[in-house]
Amino acid sequence: MRHDHHGAETDGHPGGSPVARDFARTPLIVSWETTQACGLECDHCRAEAQPERDPDELTTGEARTVIDQVASFGHPAPVLVFSGGDPLERPDLFELLDYADERGLPTAVTPAPTGNLTRDVVERFAEAGVRRMALSLDGPDADSHDTFRGESGSYERIQRAAEWAREAGLSIQINTTVTATTVTGLPGIAEHVSRLGAAMWEVFFLVPTGRGADLDQLSPTEADEVLAWLYRHQREVPYRVITVEAPQYRRVAREIDGDVTVGSTRAGSGFVFVSHRGRVYPSGFLPESAGSVREQSLVELYRDAPLFERLRDPETFSGPCGDCEYRDLCGGSRSRAHAATGDPFGSDPLCPLVAE
């Protein structure tokens, strides 16, 4: 992912355009939590997923309206990610994927590795025009991954799903959550990313929210060491490495290689999250809502809501993040700042520059 110096970005995400986009106007990613229903009980779950669907989920008609709103952002269109919970718990999932494709939207899907994820389902994703399927891998072997995911057999399902995707011509990415427990497995997971033929490795740095609040985080120094390892690793592999909730990756890359750019998202600036009930958030890890798609257009909320406008203005950040020389380049995780201080405009404690 390449950045210019004015908040615009060109991207290598599925369906992305080489045209630079202004993040004050159009996000790179719209992540829609289609449902909280999921058959897994993962230790880190942001959504605190439940076995059953919420009766107040967006209806099929409301979901189609959201798709229309995403399309109205214009060109280049955001990538619409169908996330969860497990999106396969929604019986209208393929109807909605088809509709998004008809509206010209690039789509991605993040199915949970349960019995819902079959070869037929993966083939239907490809037929529906899905640009990429994300699979979560949080350990280099079945024991470590299945323990983290709380489900025996999850590791094997991911291996099979990746093979089915290869046969169907469907691009995949691997998502990994970094905690003090999973960090030692990163080199082994990286080998899997290569072997499975993934186009991208998306590395999430834990935000202590939902069930993830009970997990141990890295120290700031450890986080910087991991980010440096990830940056050096991505120079040697065919897939892209991006980070989530760790915009410090941009700073670390500059410290290693000078004027380089890497991919890392920040809440409310290029990224917007729509909950299963239609509430609009800067991130799924930042529980402050700007409004609801049931009452106001997603485009208006993203562009004009005071919460989003301020999140895109690092000059309004307080503490070390607000004074940092890397404020515009990095800005810190707004989600982690909120989790740690109750203030999304505070400082991100995962950064060693904050701890000094």
Automatic annotation (TrEMBL):
One Pfam match: Radical_SAM
Residues covered by region (Disordered): 1-21
Required cofactor names: [4Fe-4S] cluster
Keyword S-adenosyl-L-methionine: yes
Keywords: 4Fe-4S, Iron, Iron-sulfur, Metal-binding, S-adenosyl-L-methionine
GO molecular function: 4 iron, 4 sulfur cluster binding; catalytic activity; metal ion binding
PANTHER family xref list: RADICAL SAM DOMAIN PROTEIN, TUNGSTEN-CONTAINING ALDEHYDE FERREDOXIN OXIDOREDUCTASE COFACTOR MODIFYING PROTEIN
The protein, known as: Radical SAM protein
Source species of the chain: Halapricum salinum
